[in-house]
Amino acid sequence: MSVSGESRDPMRQKVQEMEQAAKRAQDPQERERLMAKARELREQMERRGNAGGDDLGPV
After folding, report:
1. Helix, strand or coil for residue 59?
2. CA separation (Å) from 45 to 24, 27, 31, 34, 35?
3. Sign of the Cα pseudo-torsion (18, 20, 21, 26, in order)
4. DSSP type of residue 57
5. How far apart are the first and last CA of the chain?
6. 29-52: string of b/e by CB count within 10 Å (b at 16+)?
7. Residue 15 contacts residue 41 (beta carbons within 8 Å)
8. pLDDT digits over 10-32, tens only?
9. CA distance 57 to 27
10. CA-to-CA distance for 28 and 50, rounded, in angstroms?
């Protein structure tokens, strides 16, 4: 696994934890806040993954 792949795993885990916490949250505002943060982190991961050039997509 590449170094950049290893650095994304903790972020991916954090996103999953936030999504799970959001599902368990009783307060709708807290649930939405957690889901928004998870979405934001996922988008950051995708941008970094695409900008990193380590994907195997077309050139």
Report:
1. coil
2. 24, 27, 21, 17, 15
3. positive
4. S
5. 21
6. eeeeebbebbeebbeebeeeeeee
7. yes
8. 889 999 999 999 999 999 999 99
9. 41
10. 33
For the question of whether the overall pTM of this predicted structure is more than 0.85, the answer is: no
Q: The tokens 């799970």 sit on which residue?
A: 20
Sole residue written with tokens 């939405």:
32
Q: Are 18 and 36 in contact (CB under 8 A)?
A: no
* CA separation for the pair 44, 35 (Å, rounded): 14
Tracing tokens 């991961």 back to the chain, one arrives at 45
Computed from CA positions of residues 48, 52, 56, 59, in that sequence, does the dihedral angle turn out positive or negative?
positive
Rounded distance between C-alpha atoms, residue 38 and residue 59, angstroms? 29
Show the tokens assigned to 37: 């943060």
